[in-house]
Amino acid sequence: MAHLDNSVAIVGAGDYIGTAIAKKFASEGYLVVAGRRNGDKLEPLVAEIEAAGGRISARSLDAREPEDVTAFLAEADALAPLALTIFNVGANVNFPILETTDRVFRKVWEMACFAGFVTGRESARLMLEHGEGKIFFTGATAGRRGGNGYAAFAAAKFGLRAVAESMARELWPRHIHVAHLIIDAGVDTEWVRERIRQAGGPDNPPGLMPPEAIADAYWQLFQQPETAWTFEQEIRPYGETW
Amino acid sequence: MAHLDNSVAIVGAGDYIGTAIAKKFASEGYLVVAGRRNGDKLEPLVAEIEAAGGRISARSLDAREPEDVTAFLAEADALAPLALTIFNVGANVNFPILETTDRVFRKVWEMACFAGFVTGRESARLMLEHGEGKIFFTGATAGRRGGNGYAAFAAAKFGLRAVAESMARELWPRHIHVAHLIIDAGVDTEWVRERIRQAGGPDNPPGLMPPEAIADAYWQLFQQPETAWTFEQEIRPYGETW
Amino acid sequence: MAHLDNSVAIVGAGDYIGTAIAKKFASEGYLVVAGRRNGDKLEPLVAEIEAAGGRISARSLDAREPEDVTAFLAEADALAPLALTIFNVGANVNFPILETTDRVFRKVWEMACFAGFVTGRESARLMLEHGEGKIFFTGATAGRRGGNGYAAFAAAKFGLRAVAESMARELWPRHIHVAHLIIDAGVDTEWVRERIRQAGGPDNPPGLMPPEAIADAYWQLFQQPETAWTFEQEIRPYGETW
Amino acid sequence: MAHLDNSVAIVGAGDYIGTAIAKKFASEGYLVVAGRRNGDKLEPLVAEIEAAGGRISARSLDAREPEDVTAFLAEADALAPLALTIFNVGANVNFPILETTDRVFRKVWEMACFAGFVTGRESARLMLEHGEGKIFFTGATAGRRGGNGYAAFAAAKFGLRAVAESMARELWPRHIHVAHLIIDAGVDTEWVRERIRQAGGPDNPPGLMPPEAIADAYWQLFQQPETAWTFEQEIRPYGETW
Question: Quick check: D153 and D92 in contact, CB under 8 A?
């Protein structure tokens, strides 16, 4: 597969990473199928991709609702055989342990782990029919390190990583490439810049990763031959301390 | 603290590991407070510990219900200041990814991760009042490796490990020892022996870890001075392949 | 940099991986500078690359001799500014611990670790002058796991990984991309095929990684923008059990 | 074994950790056999242990000389069957990569890795004759993380960890407990205190680990039943940031 009569589904097509991924794969000729909460926010992206001659289908999607995920992926696959699903739902929070409520812990897990599990499983169901496919998950440093104040976020991201690894071991031999891309840096978004400003940092902070670089990393993973697949890849800017 | 006017709470006082832990800490003089589903199953344990001159309080506990966990720990602390909580709820399942239902994924997480988070947080709330305490979590190899067929179990166990690590970073400086004990072996239980028999294995398989050895490992962790604490410790039998 | 007036140095240009890397980078227009023991064995590679219109300079190199490595890299940099060094010296051996002699342990380390350290340091010395560059190390699973019988090989490969990581932390902020590529599979070489045959395996074993796929992986790393560099990447064939 | 007619050999019986280990095992009734460079520096330790009623044999030892190590361990085993060897040679240095000379890189490796390999192998040779024994290695955080400026030290410590892990996989099934204890903190030594003072730190810095706590951790490892052995254990003070 992986020719141009395929679709690429993005679960969690947010303003930054998801948007950059959509533009990249549309520019390479794929039909992009993008879902996010408040799907009307995708209108500018649709306009931009279509103006550039690309193809995109966008709609609202609540990734925590399994039936919605199943329907979303089935629609994508009906438009054109699903070659790639990227799960990109985030849910970063930081609370001292005593202030981490049951509700927050559960909600962050539903968004960042449970939704990823459902997205992966339902993508696999379609791709096993095709005999091939790719399922990529956006991970974070919190998927490998439980930092102070990150019990909820790290538990969800550790869990997502476990799902990805378990699926990779089962599905690689069936020609489905499951991978986990770890973004070990702040992403250059307005929200991150504002947090840095509030913490007394510079207006134009160095060390933020442009969303386009993440899209390029996914494109590289997508290009790998099945004789040399990567399960986990970590990216960070040259100047980041780690 | 850590003298004999203290209680030790066991969340998930099952037939094997939990029982062995209860006997060990009771034999060392602590008041053991044991909770599990179907608390009436604890009656033989209570009888055995009391016959040996130990002290134990046992009752039914659904660790997935935060209010029940809060009450259980408060009761323990009221009986005698809570020196140690051990979270020992298991939920091992194995399914191919397509057969891993939403319900199973969620339930395993509620038992092995969410319940651990609540147990940890509520123990910390009590122990921070005392200015000291210990919170230990029973982990498994699946907390570090997402094996084929273990998406649900590994996601929960990875998540539990994240909770433990995040709590350790926050609470160690406040004199609360949070640790994660990884059992990298089959535990010698009737259920495990039956699975081995069904798989064509021997009636008396080598390489199973006796529950008493796990209790001893917890006792060692409990004895560590705060100048040299361990966060994560992995134990396996000498003959286990790893 | 990274335009076509640059050289790419390969330390350990063996018959398989090194050869594939040389062909790839020569085909992309770079001047390849290849070194290995018994440099006359490089004659067919030189002929093949030149016949295809590429540029290559080849010579004998004992990577365990620091002065030889320094001279080799200086020669490469004099031919054209050094954009990339790939360290690709292998030394896989397996002995029970009691049969692992001092001499073997030391020699494997000199080849797979010490030579890598010298290659990295001397490359950095040249690249820091240019203000940029890339240094990649070929790693193995034995760099993360000390297997039974691999005390010598794993000690060397662990050490190489430590060198790479330490250099990455120091040199990334100075625009030098240091990376460690882990090959988690048998490479498709005549030697590996022979070992498989001797172990009773098939004449045409599945699951071997073609050297060309490794060269492609290095090419991908080489293409990464400095806003999203990878330090460590692991590749294995889709059918490999891990 | 492990009764009181046994010897415990310490390779690298330095002023702090090694000394504390010697006192601990002597106080538990074992015959301690201690080696270090400049063995005459061991005289006060010998006097102290003997004054307390303990037994110790001390002498000069260059752990980088295999024949010296072999003789040292044979002497220990001749005095009383060797129950435990602890390898405790350190070699911490920090240099920018360009200033890390071949000589330093090689010497640090000879002290911290090669000597450990020889010590482990020669101990195993004796213990396999007894059918049991224990071999413990003192590790450091640099055995898991290649920090900026630590190419030489990390390469050696990574290598030591690889040796320990490889030996553990081979020797555990033969009843020899091989373990790796990671000290993730500054040890409370005069040298460390001086470095902290020079860096502008306090005269009485918090967060240093007392050597006695390390000795206690080794004692705990020594006590583990073979049904529940630990390969790797990390210890740090409660207040340490990690």
Answer: yes
Q: Is the pLDDT of residue D64 over 90?
A: yes
**Would you state the structure tokens that stand for residue D240, as one six-digit string?**
């340490």
B113, B165 contact by CB (below 8 A): no
CB atoms within 10 A of CB A94: 15
Which residues in chain B have their CB less than 8 angstroms from residue D223's CB?
220
Q: Do C231 and A234 touch (CB under 8 A)?
A: yes
Instruction: Record the tokens describing residue B79, joined without a space.
Output: 């009986």
Q: Does C239 reach chain A within 8 Å, measured CB to CB?
A: yes
Task: Quick: pLDDT tens for C166-223.
Answer: 999 999 999 999 999 999 999 998 888 888 889 888 887 878 899 999 999 999 999 9
Angle at CA of residue B21, ends B16 and B23, nearest 5°: 95
Q: Which chains touch C (3 or more CB pairs under 8 A)?
A: A, D
> Phi, psi at residue D21, to the nearest 5°?
-65, -45
Nearest chain A residue to C227, by CA: A237
Annotation: CATH topology of B7-184+212-232 = Rossmann fold (3.40.50)
D172 interfacial to chain B (CB closer than 8 Å): yes
C131 interface with A at CB cutoff 8 Å: no
Contact B105 A120 (CB under 8 A): no
Could you give the CA distance from residue C201 to residue C187 in angstroms, rounded to a whole number? 15
* Residue B158 forms contact with A (CB below 8 Å): yes
Cβ of D230 within 8 Å of Cβ of B235? The answer is yes
Q: To 10 degrees, what angle do helices B211-223 and D211-223 make?
A: 170
What homologous superfamily is domain A7-185+212-235 in, according to CATH?
A: NAD(P)-binding Rossmann-like Domain (3.40.50.720)
Q: Is the predicted pLDDT of residue B36 greater than 70, yes or no?
A: yes
Separation in Å, CA of C231 to nearest CA in chain A: 7
Alpha-carbon gap, residue B124 to B134, rounded angstroms: 9
Contacts of C114 in chain D (CB under 8 A): 102, 105-106, 109
Distance CA D219, CA B101 (A): 47
DSSP conformational letter for B189: -
Query: Residue A162: which of B98, B155, B170 has the nearest Cβ?
Result: B155
CA distances for B178 relative to A33, A98, A191, B226, angstroms: 44, 15, 33, 11
Tell me the three state secondary structure of residue C23. helix
* Closest Cα in chain A to B144: A162
Residue D217's contacts (CB-CB under 8 Å, 6 or more residues apart) are: B224, B228, B230, D181, D233, D235
Whether A190 shows a pLDDT value over 90: the answer reads no
DSSP letter, residue D235: E
**CATH 3.40.50.720 applies to domain C7-231:** yes
Contact D235 B216 (CB under 8 A): no
What is the SS3 assignment for A9? strand
Q: Classify residue D223 by burial, with Cβ atoms within 10 Å: 0-12, 13-18, 19+.
A: exposed
Query: Which residues neighbour A50 within 8 Å (Cβ) at sequence distance 6 or greater?
Result: A56
Contact B146 A164 (CB under 8 A): yes
Contacts of D120 in chain C (CB under 8 A): 97, 151
Closest approach of chain A CAs to the CA of B189, in angstroms?
Answer: 26
Q: What is the pLDDT of residues B61-85, one digit of tens each?
A: 999 999 999 999 999 999 999 999 9
Q: Which CATH superfamily is domain D7-235 in?
A: NAD(P)-binding Rossmann-like Domain (3.40.50.720)
Residue A156 touches chain B, beta carbons under 8 Å? yes
Q: Pick from A138, A177, A170: which is nearest to A157 by CA? A: A138
CA D155 to chain C, closest CA, distance in angstroms equals 4
